[in-house]
Automatic annotation (TrEMBL), chain A:
<keyword id="KW-1003">Cell membrane</keyword>
<dbReference type="GO" id="GO:0048038">
    <property type="term" value="F:quinone binding"/>
</dbReference>
<feature type="transmembrane region" description="Helical">
    <location>
        <begin position="57"/>
        <end position="78"/>
    </location>
</feature>
<feature type="transmembrane region" description="Helical">
    <location>
        <begin position="93"/>
        <end position="113"/>
    </location>
</feature>
<keyword id="KW-0812">Transmembrane</keyword>
<keyword id="KW-0472">Membrane</keyword>
<dbReference type="Pfam" id="PF00499">
    <property type="entry name" value="Oxidored_q3"/>
</dbReference>
<feature type="transmembrane region" description="Helical">
    <location>
        <begin position="34"/>
        <end position="51"/>
    </location>
</feature>
<feature type="transmembrane region" description="Helical">
    <location>
        <begin position="6"/>
        <end position="27"/>
    </location>
</feature>
From TrEMBL, chain B:
<dbReference type="GO" id="GO:0030964">
    <property type="term" value="C:NADH dehydrogenase complex"/>
</dbReference>
<protein>
    <recommendedName>
        <fullName>NADH-quinone oxidoreductase subunit K</fullName>
        <ecNumber>7.1.1.-</ecNumber>
    </recommendedName>
</protein>
<dbReference type="GO" id="GO:0042773">
    <property type="term" value="P:ATP synthesis coupled electron transport"/>
</dbReference>
<keyword id="KW-0874">Quinone</keyword>
<feature type="transmembrane region" description="Helical">
    <location>
        <begin position="62"/>
        <end position="87"/>
    </location>
</feature>
<dbReference type="GO" id="GO:0050136">
    <property type="term" value="F:NADH dehydrogenase (quinone) (non-electrogenic) activity"/>
</dbReference>
<comment type="function">
    <text>NDH-1 shuttles electrons from NADH, via FMN and iron-sulfur (Fe-S) centers, to quinones in the respiratory chain. The immediate electron acceptor for the enzyme in this species is believed to be a menaquinone. Couples the redox reaction to proton translocation (for every two electrons transferred, four hydrogen ions are translocated across the cytoplasmic membrane), and thus conserves the redox energy in a proton gradient.</text>
</comment>
<keyword id="KW-1133">Transmembrane helix</keyword>
<dbReference type="Pfam" id="PF00420">
    <property type="entry name" value="Oxidored_q2"/>
</dbReference>
Length: 169, 103
């Protein structure tokens, strides 16, 4: 019964994620694409919950469902175009793009189905991910963690200067 | 049939390929950024699924996806700032118009 609930949740969230991701790339109006992108991010957050990553699910909703979706919506609204109905056109290589994507999916899917992934290390069932994540981030990965903080600061300042322009000193 | 690692990996592959299609086939720079975001989400699903099914008990996969989220947030902020700066200059977000380096 528990397996059945897990499978039902997986298929529901996977269908929501994939359908809204297909909406992002196939819808003609870019505002609809941006809304579908936010829906897809929420579906991915639900999948993180299924994968025992509750902290990352919260981060996904905050960063992607909140910040990135709002940024993309602002980007859509700040760049104006004449006809909103056809605001998300394909370029002239759409045939090749669909062929490359389908071929990549076929090759990866074939490789995945043929591979037997064996578990490594000791298998314990973690209670909550936050404690383990925190001790790793502030222990083994503390240099990368601080570099990521500096990277975010630099990206923030760079984005403001690129979008607004800096006064000549 | 129980849901295993392969299901999550196939889902991640499908999401990645949709993002790849959007990245390659769109003319609008913001739509291309959306495709990149979908691809980064697919990578995160893969990392966390491997963390649960292959290396349960360690959190290395989740730590990696934290860093992927950080870099993706930085990327979308700088990318949209670039798109807006180009739009102010050229009144267009069509990437086919951005051929100043071609001669």
């Amino acid at each position: 019964m528990n397996d059945f609930i897990f499978a039902a949740a997986f298929y529901g969230l996977a269908g929501m994620t994939i359908l809204s991701a297909a909406g992002v790339v196939f819808l003609k109006d870019i505002v609809h694409s941006a809304l579908m992108l936010a829906l897809s991010f929420i579906g991915v957050a639900g999948l993180y919950v299924l994968l025992n990553a509750d902290f990352l699910a919260a981060v996904q909703i905050l960063v992607y469902g909140g910040a990135v979706a709002i940024l993309i919506a602002f980007g859509v609204m700040l760049t104006r175009r004449r006809n909103m109905k056809e605001s998300n056109p394909n370029n002239r290589w759409v045939i090749y793009a669909s062929f490359v994507s389908a071929a990549f999916f076929a090759i990866c899917g074939w490789a995945l189905i043929g591979t037997d992934f064996k578990p490594v290390g000791q298998q314990v069932n973690p209670e909550a991910a936050v404690e383990g994540l925190a001790s790793l981030l502030l222990g083994d990965y503390v240099v990368a963690f601080e570099s990521a903080a500096v990277l975010l600061l630099v990206a923030l300042v760079g984005a403001i200067i690129l979008a607004k322009g800096a006064k000549e000193a | 049939m129980t849901i295993g690692l392969t299901h999550f990996l196939l889902l991640g592959t499908a999401l990645f390929c949709l993002g790849l299609y959007g990245l390659l086939s769109k003319r609008n720079a913001i739509a291309i950024l959306m495709g990149i975001e979908l691809m980064l989400n697919a990578v995160n699903i893969n990392l966390i699924a491997f963390n649960k099914y292959v290396a349960a008990g360690s959190y290395t996969g989740q730590v990696f996806s934290v860093f992927v989220i950080v870099v993706a947030a930085a990327e979308v902020a700088v990318g949209l700032a670039l798109v807006l700066a180009i739009y102010k200059d050229r009144l267009s977000t069509n990437v086919d118009d951005l051929d100043w380096l071609k001669w």
